Amino acid sequence: MSGKDHLDMDQAQRDPGSVFDSPESLGARSDLTAETKRELLRRWAYDARELAAAEDEGMNGGEPSLLGRIEAVLAAMDEPPERDD
After folding, report:
1. pLDDT, tens digit (0-9, with 9 covering 90-100), for 64-83
2. Residue 64 DSSP symbol
3. What is the rounded end-to-end Cα distance, in angstroms, of the chain?
4. Is the Cα dihedral 45, 46, 51, 56 positive or negative?
5. For the chain, what is the radius of gyration of the CA atoms?
6. What SS3 class is residue 2?
């Protein structure tokens, strides 16, 4: 999904990775509130942790760097905006 294409919010809440191209694209959307973005990113992080745990148990999982990327987007959302002094 890219830009401001139609957003299936129910699907996004169940599986953010199936709706958004990347954590960064989710974080960049201007049509979602910050709290909605955080909720979706937290869900995505949970899913990524579950995949990592499955991979540790010998099952094939997801992209190893995904959790770090999700956490980076969440951290960037919590940073205060830069001020022009």
Report:
1. 578 899 999 999 998 776 77
2. T
3. 37
4. positive
5. 14
6. coil
How far is 81 from 78, CA to CA, in rounded Å?
Answer: 9
Biggest CA pair distance of the chain:
53
Say how many CA atoms lie within 13 Å of 47 toward its Cβ: 18
Helix residue ranges per DSSP H, 1-85? 9-14, 16-19, 23-28, 34-56, 66-78
Please tell me the distance from the alpha carbon of residue 67 to that of residue 16, in angstroms, as a whole number: 13
Write the pLDDT tens digit of every residue in 2-48.
444 689 999 999 999 999 999 999 999 999 999 999 999 999 999 99
